[in-house]
Specification:
The chain is mainly α. Among the domains are: 79 residues; 129 residues, no CATH class. The protein has 15 helices and 3 strands. The N and C termini lie far apart (64 Å). About 2% of the residues have low confidence. The structure holds zinc ion (2 copies). The site of one zinc ion has 4 residues, from helix 10.
Length: 328
């Protein structure tokens, strides 16, 4: 064989992987092309070796997989973070814990800057180091949130980047904790709000404005008196409720959401909405559908001008009311 190994063919082999009746032949095809200088794009050499390493690992041959991953690291010294991550994971799974941890720890700062660095977490989890993975996710979230709090003058690009990182880290952490059967903590609630805000923001591309369901103070009280089960879905106080909405909107705008706003719910309105269909007014689904039904009646656009009346209905100026709430 003297033909060139293209990126498409490497992809194809990657998809076949160990499901192929002859995984060894696929490994030989990849490594042969690298050995003989037949990789069509030299930038794909590391990729070819890592695909081969993955097939070997799935076949249970961790030692040879490590050899190929090590070679991938050496082949492309300027762009080898992913290869080092794979190598680190393999070392861990081979029981060479100190070496593996050293390799991954050197890459740990990427979790604060590179949205594609979540493979580090996967490597840790797959190697039975879920606790370390959690610690790194929490640490990265702490660091980025601290940075966004203290550096008010970051460029818009830097802010978008931070928002994207926060989103990815919070989702990964949320799902990992859920797998471990852990209850929601503050960052998990953030993850849920961000996901909802992002769904809304994405939906807004064809559905009109992205809106969140907001309960004015009296309605918030009436709601929880009437359906105590909703205490699980909402914070303990109305102040926290409007702060959550403000933060979700700030985050949605950071993710590029446009046409943001709130729709105003009422306890009587929710009851009337749920009754005819017999749906449970306390279910997430009913609340979403109720919010959608209010969309048509009118959306309070967000954000208001700094000196305009706040969206929450307090009567105070936005800059003195909910604007500062997003920062605590
Ligand atoms: Zn959740
Ligand atoms: Zn307000």
């Amino acid at each position: 064989m003297s033909e060139l190994l293209t990126a498409d063919r490497i992809d194809e082999i990657g998809n076949l992987g160990s499901k192929s009746p002859d995984p060894a032949a696929l490994v030989a095809e990849l490594v042969g092309a690298v050995d003989e200088g037949r990789v069509a794009d030299p930038d794909d050499i590391g990729f070819a070796l890592l695909v081969a390493a993955d097939i070997l690992e799935q076949a249970g041959d961790l030692a040879d997989a490590l050899t190929l991953a090590t070679r991938a690291v050496a082949e492309q010294p300027d762009d080898n973070a992913y290869a080092r991550g794979v190598r680190g994971g393999l070392l861990l799974r081979l029981g060479r814990t100190d070496e593996g941890m050293a390799e991954l720890t050197a890459l740990r700062p990427l979790l604060e800057t590179n949205p594609k660095s979540m493979y580090l977490i996967d490597e840790l989890v797959e190697s039975g180091h879920g606790d370390t993975a959690m610690e790194w996710l929490t640490g990265a979230l702490d660091a980025i949130l601290e940075r966004t709090r203290t550096q008010q003058h970051e460029s818009e690009d830097a802010q978008d980047e931070a928002a994207a990182m926060i989103y990815g880290l919070a989702q990964q952490r949320h799902d990992l904790r859920e797998e471990q059967g852990l209850p929601h903590d503050e960052y998990d609630n953030l993850a849920d709000r961000l996901r909802a805000a992002s769904d809304h923001a994405l939906g807004a591309l064809d559905d009109g404005p992205a809106t969140l369901l907001f309960w004015p103070q009296a309605e918030f009280t009436a709601l929880l008196l009437r359906w105590p089960a909703l205490a699980d879905s909402y914070p303990a106080t109305w102040d926290e409720h409007r702060a959550q909405i403000e933060r979700a909107l700030v985050e949605a705008s950071g993710l590029g959401g446009a046409d943001l706003g709130v729709v105003v719910g009422t306890a009587a309105g929710l009851a009337a909405f749920a009754e005819p269909t017999g749906s449970d007014p306390t279910s997430e689904e009913t609340l979403d559908e109720y919010a959608d039904s209010l969309d048509e009646a009118g959306v309070t656009a967000w954000p208001p001008g700094r000196n305009d009346t706040c969206w929450c209905g307090s009567g105070a100026k936005y800059k003195k009311c909910c604007l500062p709430r997003s920062r605590d």
